[in-house]
Amino acid sequence: MTEIIDGNAVASTLREELTGCVETLAAADERPTLATVLMSEDPASETYVSMKQDDCEEVGIGARDVTLDADAPAEDLFEVVDDLNNDDDVNAILVQSPVPDHVDYREVLERIDPMKDVDAFHPENVGRLVAGYPRYKPCTPHGIQRLLAAADVDTEGKDAVVVGRSRIVGKPMVNLFIQDAPGGNATTTVCHSRTDDLAAKTREADIVVAAAGVPELVDGSMLEEGAVVIDVGINRVEAEDGDGTTLVGDVDFESAKEKASAITPVPGGVGPMTRAMLLYNTVKATSLQTDTAVELP
Ligand SMILES: Nc1nc(=O)c2c([nH]1)NC[C@@H]1CN(c3ccc(C(=O)N[C@@H](CCC(=O)O)C(=O)O)cc3)C=[N+]21
């Protein structure tokens, strides 16, 4: 039987555990606060940011939300970031991507205080991860490690194939998989849009992480029997019945499920874990900044 890995359930357990950490910090008068910054009128971005705020409320983390007009000057966003950096009541900052074309996202990321950078996208945090001493682990790949652990998938010595080389998922996933640490020690191959024969690579994999942003790129014919399949795709496509849009992953779920020993669904797989690990990093950030010990789950 194929195990459908329930990301909502794993994330819910983690949120419950994090509530205890938040209480410890609040008792020391250091309740964590996450600031989200949204500079976009994209409905999907608005949805994600509002989900993050709901998550904060559930675990007792304070939520600050800053919204900027999509046509505001880049300087306005930089000022918001500077103010949040200097605000002792704010422990964590997330600037939702994408930002409008006239804003250089890289400049934004480099401006965020690395101690408050809970996405772990600042070059200092990226560098630490690559060097093997991460401060914060990027939310999506960290969430994937947790999902694999929850499904009793030991990565050590396994062949992992990561499809996609993005800064936010592919690259950090590779770095976590190759670390000499729990959830790592995998023999890791990274594939991307220029890979000659993707199917030949994925067929060698014990674990496939599909993070290319291409709807249903990976199907059952590309998998070895018993592979573990993690679907990172969040693609909004036109519904087959022509009525509105539906969410599809980077994996063709129906055919992949026939081959996989375990697989994550979309929605309800990686997405909720990404959000849970953001809360985790916010708690960790608060603990580090205030020298208040918590037992992270
Ligand atoms: N600075 C920054 N950090 C991010 O982490 C970041 C970002 N910008 N920009 C956009 C992407 C996307 N992202 C998602 C997180 C959770 C779900 C999620 O929970 N999805 C639900 C479904 C939601 C729905 O129905 O649309 C699920 O998969 O079950 C989706 C997408 C975080 N991102």
From TrEMBL:
Signal peptide as annotated in the record: none
Example GO BP: methionine biosynthetic process
One Gene Ontology term of the molecular function aspect: methylenetetrahydrofolate dehydrogenase (NADP+) activity
SUPFAM superfamilies recorded: Aminoacid dehydrogenase-like, N-terminal domain, NAD(P)-binding Rossmann-fold domains
The keyword Cytoplasm is assigned to this record: no
Pfam families reported for this sequence: THF_DHG_CYH, THF_DHG_CYH_C
Catalytic activity, reaction form: (6R)-5,10-methenyltetrahydrofolate + H2O = (6R)-10-formyltetrahydrofolate + H(+); (6R)-5,10-methylene-5,6,7,8-tetrahydrofolate + NADP(+) = (6R)-5,10-methenyltetrahydrofolate + NADPH
Subunit record text: Homodimer.
Entries under PANTHER family matching the protein: C-1-TETRAHYDROFOLATE SYNTHASE, CYTOPLASMIC, C-1-TETRAHYDROFOLATE SYNTHASE, CYTOPLASMIC-RELATED
The protein, known as: Bifunctional protein FolD
Organism name: Halovenus salina
